[in-house]
Amino acid sequence: MYPFFKHTKGPHFPLSYCSLLLNHCLSQKSLNFVKVVHAHFIKLGLNTYTYLGNRCLNLYSEVGHVNDALKVFDDISHKNSTSWNIFLKGLLKSGQLGKAFHVFDVMPARDVVTWNSMISGYAYFGFLSHALELFVEMQGTGVRPSGFTFSIVMSLVSSPSHAKQIHCRMIRSEMDLDNVVLGNSLITMYGKLGLVEYAFGVIMTMKQFDVISWNSLIWACQRAGHHEQALELFYQMRDADFLPDQFTCSMLMKVSSNLRDLDKGKQVFAFCFKMGFVYNSIVSSAAIDLFSKCNRLEDSVQLFKEQDQWDSALCNSMISGYARHDLGEDALRLFVLTLRKNIRPTKYMVSSLLSSVSIFLPVEVGNQIHSLVPKLGFESDEVIANSLVDMYAKFGFIDDALNIFSEMKIKDLVSWNTMLMGLTYNGRVSYTMDLFRELLTREDMLPDRITLTAVLQACNYGLFVDEGIEIFSLMEIKFGVKPGEEHYECVVAMLSKAGKLKEAIDIIETMPYRSTSGIWKSILSACAVYGDLQIIEGVAEKIIDRETQTSLPYLVLAQTYQMRGRWETMVRMRKAVETKGTKEVIGCSWIGIKNNLYTFESNQLQHYGGKDLYLLLNLLDWEMETEGFV
């Protein structure tokens, strides 16, 4: 028996004493103690009291026992709005969204707390559109949103127009926009959407702001790619006598990483030493990432080894660093150590590991990591799904990539781009075009430059000339994407392969970028088949001007002169190759089988029994031709 109940016989049990007991239960978070107190309330007939019932209801909800909370809720004789709201929160906290919605539906009255609970509940479980619909419905019933309501909704907004509507609604609702918390939420909302000028507009109207306000604005600039402006804000923050915290420092590290500015990064790192932040996990992980991106991996490793305690942020940065430097085995080894230390992997850690698998490690390792995904609860995460699609596509398992893509519940533009690129580089160009047409039917998503690169490359590989020209011509008008060098290269290569050399040369001469030797090489390769001597000589001259050490134009000219019987000129071209000592960089392909890496280079397979493997490759090539993939 607990000492609290030593002298509690009889019906006269002071409510103040009951409140004291419940406060003790709340501080202890002990389920057994809560049940003992509840049992004595039932024995004394106090369980029907609204105030005590609400307190017991809140306690059971806090410790996660919804069934006991339901019994308490049923015993309360006169349920007020607090009773309903506490029970609703308990259901949402335990993950019973369906029951929570039923309770919400039958509630006799709904106040702003009720609506906030349901909106945040829907948001927490990923039903963002339902949460926003509830927000609209709430206003239709005449319930006035609170500051907390707007802070929830601001975290859900995904389009600039909605963000501006929410801001206007706050002004019309006479919200206190001088409130620092609301102001910071507005800055974060606009920063998330890349509307940096609106974020600046908010802070200009705020009468007072704190470190979080500065951090939010610096984050907005960094996220939008305005790195120099983010650094300038840091200087202004210091001039205004605000003391930066670890979040400020981690963002400045990220800014330095994105600028690849090691000197600025070192200055920030020195400031962290001065402030005592250097062994803070957030700051250290940002510093590890900085050194890795600035090609100082040894410094990243040293800093990682100096950490007294590992966590997911530190391990994620180090694994990403190893993967970035093509050290897949080191990344995998650290991942295993992370699991042994009972550190729960993050989705970014798994994504980094999958990217390293697709570079050097064999696909069997990727399969093992894939098997971990459902165990970690990441099967519905779009970041992991995108990495899996990319990995299987790079290994040539395009059907597995397609299956994962089709099962994704949420597909962002990265998902579509990854799948389109995978299909294109695996020769499924017709599928690429079909998937692109499907993407165009979606109203909430527009293609970007990566999407159009994948599609134009598919048009190049499949010689879909008319479609390619149409897409290229409408890029800026229809999709708002200005053609980049990569788009011009795709179109020039496509026209060259189709024998339309004049059109290809016209596009190069009118493009707003300086032409590279690479773009002229695609024309030169086609010239050997379709071009006349004058075009070949002109294109070869342009390549030689841009890349003096390449032997390709001399060899193509020698072959062209030989085909026309101009033997003396042919001999001069071949001697020019020898005299200049030009040497072409030889490409290399590789395949990993178990723990071995086999390379293909300059018609030589680095493996014993290479002749048999080439016979097998010829057979595979023949099968691909019969299936229509080549």
Automatic annotation (TrEMBL):
Taxonomy, superkingdom: Eukaryota
GO biological process: RNA modification
Entry keyword set: Repeat
Start and stop residues of the PPR repeats: 80-110, 111-145, 210-244, 311-345, 381-415
Gene Ontology terms, MF aspect: RNA binding
InterPro entries assigned: PPR_At4g14850-like_plant (IPR046960), PPR_rpt (IPR002885), TPR-like_helical_dom_sf (IPR011990)
Record keyword Repeat present: yes
NCBIfam families, A to Z: PPR (TIGR00756)
PANTHER family the record matches: PENTACOTRIPEPTIDE-REPEAT REGION OF PRORP DOMAIN-CONTAINING PROTEIN (PTHR47926:SF479), PENTATRICOPEPTIDE REPEAT-CONTAINING PROTEIN (PTHR47926)
Protein name: Pentatricopeptide repeat-containing protein
Organism ancestry: Eukaryota, Viridiplantae, Streptophyta, Embryophyta, Tracheophyta
